[in-house]
Amino acid sequence: MSQHLTDAPSSAAAPAADDAERRDWWRDAVIYQVYPRSFADANGDGMGDLPGVTARLPYLRDLGVDAVWLSPFYASPQADAGYDVADYRAVDPVFGTLNDADDLVRAAHALGLRVIVDVVPNHCSDQHEWFKQALREGAGSPLRDRFHFRPGKGAHGELPPNDWESIFGGPAWTRTVDGDGRPGEWYLHLFAPEQPDFNWKHPAVHDEFRSVLRFWLDLGVDGFRVDVAHGLVKADGLPDIGHSEQLALLGTATMPYFDQDGVHEIYRDWRQILDEYAPRLRPGAAPSDRIAVAEAWTPTIERAALYLRPDELHQAFNFEYLSAGWDAAELRAVVERSLSAMGAVGAPATWVLSNHDVTRHATRFANPPGGGTQLREPGDRELGLRRARAAALLMLALPGSAYLYQGEELGLPDVTDLPDEVRQDPSFFRAAGQDGFRDGCRVPIPWSGTEAPYGFGPVPGGPSWLPQPPEWAGLSVEAQQGDPGSTLELYRAALRLRRELPALGAGAAVTWLDAPQGVLAFRRDAPEGAAGTGNATEAADGAGSGFVCTVNTTGAPVELAAPGRPLLSSAAGGAAQPVDGDSAVRVTIAADTAIWWAI
Ligand code: GLC
């Protein structure tokens, strides 16, 4: 099933010429997260795979994204859905082969799409050769220094070496068993016991990851998403925290295992490696265009910006934005803070609403605010979808780069009622079912047809690793394609306009406009000398090059002065309604609706 370059459609054989002319593609890129387990299953075993992704790349090109980020597909026992890596240079057979990865990268480039892969440097799998050997060799072996092995406390070493708690629940330490069957040392795992943490004070760990980065760069990838980028360095002496319920402290306090200043040295080193690689589409231009994006949960946006200083990484996920409620004041505050923190280090802001670790935003916005990002209730679905569509237009109107999570362009909700017996998220089991509802956002994508797995796999009635709800037949790509009121067509239209309008995309500022309570209104202007990548004049139909986005976050219609000519509305029924037939003066914007305007 692997698709070779020569199989790619001829119309897509070369990268778009305009792309070749663009500087710093990542500054305003729209990057689509593919979760390989759940995207497309080419071989029908119920699990998505790389040939499945390759076959669907034309869909992503047509959607209008710039790049694809793939969650891990490396050799792994799948104790944490592939975030437990046993071999960083091999593809897990469940996803295909290294040749399939190569095919995918080439096919993506032929379509003008970039490819970003995950790198998981904080921990590996307990089935990684280094860890297996370290276990075999026992206490005192230098191989154990590549991890955090420690004797236990208590008279018989029966207590963990410190009080750290795993992010997935329970202690962050597991005791080993020696060759003679007696209890031995403990090892540190911030996540599942099957995910031992590397010791980044050991030079072999640095060398290994330099080599892993080069391996994938040599294969042609355009960059990396750095898993748990804030976790690599632990405070000297692994000090106690002195507090239980440590999860509640995350993101607010500095923890001895997160966001330690020592991580920055690692990223300065990695940046040099990325910069060694010549730009792919603009030979001769400097610097390199290979990028890295940090998954860095930090106490403040300003701390996240430190990862993006000019000699470190390129982008970081904006988790503060992802966690913001559907509230104009809150959204405006986080947008302002993000632009100012990222602007201070010359990095683009990024925006994200969903990913494989949190409840999908169509469900988050369907629930009362303040419930967090692991929700169990479906909430008011219609409301959630309406807000999700408006949130998409808001996100895509902001300056910088946006991350989409597969299926959000279909308006998919979280599946909140998965039976316990099909769940696979390790945090669900570690936390005794109290937390860890990440499977709900990982249910395979519906592509077509009326019978599960809805084109996810090749055979109607065939398997899928998590069951899809029956109502997803109506949400499939096939069902939405060509329907102007569908969420899919809304995303396509928005992404097309984003390419065409010079005012959208890169840039570092918005100009806020006066607006009624609960409404966001801001203007974007084309930077000096900027041209969109398409025909802006045609898109704006004779209007100037300015752009305004208005978002009504309230549950009631609001009336306001029309800022210009409506281009796109998140309301399925169309654009703003003129008041008294005078669209040039006052319009009514429906509840929970965003509108793009040309001015
Ligand atoms: C990151 C991943 C998450 C994984 C964890 C441990 O947060 O996004 O899915 O469980 O790291 O690797």
Features of the shown structure:
about 600 residues, disordered N terminus, 8-stranded parallel β-sheet
Look at the helices and sheets and give the structural class: alpha/beta
Low-confidence stretches: 1-22, 534-542
How would the global form be characterised?
globular
Summarize model confidence as the mean pLDDT: 91
Using only C-alpha atoms, the radius of gyration works out to 24 Å
Helix content: 25-40%
| Terminal CA distance | 49 Å
Q: Looking at the chains present, what oligomeric state does this protein adopt?
A: single chain
Strand content: 5-15%
Kindly state the number of beta strands. 21
Query: How many distinct helices?
Result: 16
Enumerate the strands of the largest sheet in spatial order, edge to edge or round the barrel: 11-10-9-5-2-1-13-12
Q: Characterize the main sheet.
A: 8 strands, parallel
| Ligands bound, unique | alpha-D-glucopyranose
Protein name: Alpha-amylase family glycosyl hydrolase
Organism: Actinacidiphila polyblastidii
Family: Belongs to the glycosyl hydrolase 13 family.
Keywords: Hydrolase
